Amino acid sequence: MQIQTNVPSLFVQRQLEKSSEGLNTSLRRLSSGLRINSAKDDAAGLAISERMDSLIRGNTQARRNVNDGVSLLQTAEGAMQTVTDSIQRIRELAVQAANATNSLGDKQALQQEANQLLQNIDQIAGQTEFNGEKIFSQNRNSLSGTAAERAVLDGLKLGWLEESVERIQTYYGITGDNAATLEIVLTPPVGSGLTSSPGGVLAAVGSLTGTADGQGRTLNPFLYVDMADFTPPNLPDGGSAPIYNDRIIAHEMVHAVMGRSMNFNSVGALPSWFKEGAAEFIHGADERLSTDYNGGAGLATILTAFGNDDVSASAGYSAGYAAVRYMHQKIKEAGGDGIKDIMVYLNQNAGSDLSQALTNASSGAFADLAGFKADFNADAGAFIGGMNLTNSDTGAIGGYDTDQGSVLSAKDILLDRGDTIAETQVDGFALDYQSVGGVDRKSFALQVGAKSNETITASIAAMNVSALGIDSVDLVNLPQFALYDLDKALDFVSKHRAEIGGAQSRLESTAAQLETSIESQSAARSRIRDADYATETASLTRQNILRQAGTAMLSQANSMPNLVLQLLR
């Protein structure tokens, strides 16, 4: 027996210390509800649960972000609904204004209401906010270009192209072959050699590839409109002297149709004076001829340009116009149908040239091209001198001066009111318009996840009247044009409302996914970190018993050395 070292007491103390620590752990877990209260409880589990906690907290905030984003889009969609209602009302007014029963005063009253609605659209676009931030872009770039570009494109689509090809078909008997797409461009095509400058080339037809097929027909044709000369375009009549935009288009469409219907590009097949003269004759060129004939050029210069086939200056165009009109008159006097007979022959006889056409289709008026040129050179002075170049008729084919028809003034040649909208095609051609303009968008990046780059970007287009292309709606003079522009604006707003709706659905789906993720992550974190009360309660009971027993046993162990005293008695 020893009294210096009480080994049983030391053992009991150690066990009592363990049971006390276990009891303290159970108390901490039961009082906090957590199995892991410090890193020593479960280092790996703590690291895992902290990462889960980060995801849960991040996703919870992301869910709030998503809900804010939905509210933002709902605000934008509500504003777009109001814009739609305003456009619908303006369109209703345009339909009313287009009716011939309305007086000028009636149309002006309708325009006043339309102006108020347009101001309302601008106010909505400029003042709609969410949390102090303007929702819509304030950029005023138009969905269809500048006001001038829109006016030109509207003119092309709503009458200039359709009426030009109809006039060409009626009086020349030819159309495009429906095998080519005519590209409508407002900027000079690359490689064309064209430039945009006031007073230069007003418009031009050419080939995007600069080539022709084996029959001399233009491949990949384009119609270029120089906005420097078409600005501002006066609608609906297409302009004013000396530039009538619609007549320029009619001129160029003659080239386009001839380019796809006959041997247009082979060298020598069709003289330049004939090509340009036919293009001038479709709309009349009395104004030009009067200036050149009675002005500085004179007959000698006109005949020189004709003889040299030189159309580099105005006199060349006047020469071509006078020659084609002379040809038309002489063939009709011989019993034919005028220039139409020549055009139909060139169209129906692939690869033929003008001389062959004159031999076979001039009703005996001319033996060949050489004979025609000789006759015109001899008769030009008397023929041009006998023209009435100062009356209101332009000299266009089918008009009063040429064919004893109705007087065709500069504004009457094309009515600028087609039966259809030449958006994708016109008789003889598919159409493809160069994209101009573009509406600016305001982007909102929404953080929809707990990690970097988990974002959804919602973009909202500008909704002001300039952006929608309806800032120049004219119900008094151009209700039909207004209807076209309003329909485009409605389509644009409806498209973007659909985009907003799709974005809302995506955000709502994201919110639901975040809810599921938060639930799953929380459950996983709970399994790692939360205390199991059944287990911890049992542990607490066991540790309590062990502690009480340990305390009693420690008392017994400490009293064991007293037995030595019994030996000393």
Automatic annotation (TrEMBL):
Keyword Secreted annotated: yes
InterPro entries in the cross-refs: Flagellin, Flagellin_C, Flagellin_C_sub2, Flagellin_N
Location (main, coarse): secreted
Residue ranges annotated for the Flagellin C-terminal domain, each copy included: 486-568
GO CC list: bacterial-type flagellum; extracellular region
Domain Flagellin N-terminal: 3-139
Domain of life per record: Bacteria
Subcellular locations according to the entry: Secreted; Bacterial flagellum
Pfam families assigned to the protein according to its UniProt record, in alphabetical order: Flagellin_C (PF00700), Flagellin_N (PF00669)
GO molecular function: structural molecule activity
Keywords for this protein: Bacterial flagellum, Cell projection, Cilium, Flagellum, Secreted
SUPFAM superfamilies reported in the protein's UniProt record: Phase 1 flagellin (SSF64518)
Keyword Secreted: yes
Annotated function: Flagellin is the subunit protein which polymerizes to form the filaments of bacterial flagella.
Entry's family note: Belongs to the bacterial flagellin family.
Name under which the protein is recorded: Flagellin
